[in-house]
């Protein structure tokens, strides 16, 4: 194994790996082998990820200014490099949740933690940890092969909860939320927009009732006028 992979040697060597497992397997295998190679070949991995710990990785994440998988000639992004480093470090749950909800508001640190949670946590924990961020509308820069685009945190989280591939990485299939609700493992989710939607529905109902009331009045006026006209006509004929 080449020298630049020395920092991840124990993680990458399946034959000699004896560390903690995630869902029964080496955590490195949560990233496809070709992508592992692209990550460990990047300058960012060699120079910026060597000997990182939980604290120094946090500093690297704070310095990030975009998310993404691979770009250009299939070059792995710093975001993916830090995801892979987290798989090597396997920080305590409390540390990961601190990354996710960091009080300083570092949004790319939050996105990094969310991606790691989607890869490594159990289904119920994933929903409980990530769903509150569906109300987070901060902008994120996302790098793709054809350049940068703007997305938002809530869209990124929604993609993590609903898609099987994100940032060049195949995600393990997450059970549908409805299934976990049926098994009584999750409570029914109440949308943070529920009150607004209900208010809009009420306004629409009131508007429809008002239209129906006006239509009824118009009908009565028209029929009343026609009735009076017919009455006058019959009266004239009688005379």
Automatic annotation (TrEMBL):
Compartments (UniProt record): Nucleus
Sequence similarity: Belongs to the PRP38 family.
InterPro entries reported in the protein's UniProt record: PRP38
Stated name of the protein: Pre-mRNA-splicing factor 38
Record keywords: mRNA processing, mRNA splicing, Nucleus, Spliceosome
The organism's taxonomic lineage, starting at the top: Eukaryota, Fungi, Dikarya, Ascomycota, Pezizomycotina
GO cellular component, one term: spliceosomal complex
Spans annotated as Disordered: 196-239
PANTHER family assigned to the protein according to its UniProt record, in alphabetical order: PRE-MRNA-SPLICING FACTOR 38A-RELATED
Positions with biased composition (Basic and acidic residues): 205-223
């Amino acid at each position: 194994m080449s020298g630049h992979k020395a920092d991840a040697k124990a993680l990458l060597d399946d034959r000699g790996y004896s560390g903690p497992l995630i869902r029964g397997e080496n955590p490195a295998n949560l990233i496809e082998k070709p992508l592992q190679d692209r990550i460990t070949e990047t300058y960012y991995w060699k120079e910026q990820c060597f000997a990182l710990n939980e604290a120094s990785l946090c500093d690297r994440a704070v310095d990030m200014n975009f998310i993404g998988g691979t770009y250009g000639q299939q070059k792995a992004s710093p975001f993916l490099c830090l995801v892979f480093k987290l798989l090597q470090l396997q920080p305590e749950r409390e540390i990961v949740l601190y990354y996710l909800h960091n009080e300083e508001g570092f949004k790319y640190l939050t996105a990094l933690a969310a991606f790691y949670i989607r890869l490594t946590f159990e289904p119920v924990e994933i929903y409980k940890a990530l769903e509150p961020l569906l109300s987070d509308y901060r902008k994120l820069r996302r790098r793709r092969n054809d350049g940068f685009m703007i997305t938002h945190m809530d869209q990124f989280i929604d993609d993590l909860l609903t898609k099987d591939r994100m940032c060049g990485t195949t995600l393990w299939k997450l059970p549908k939320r409805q299934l976990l609700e049926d098994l009584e493992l999750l409570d029914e989710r109440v949308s943070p927009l529920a009150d607004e939607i209900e208010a809009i529905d009420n306004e629409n109902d009131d508007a429809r009732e008002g239209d129906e009331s006006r239509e009824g009045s118009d009908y009565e006026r028209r029929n009343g006028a026609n009735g009076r006209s017919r009455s006058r006509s019959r009266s004239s004929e009688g005379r």
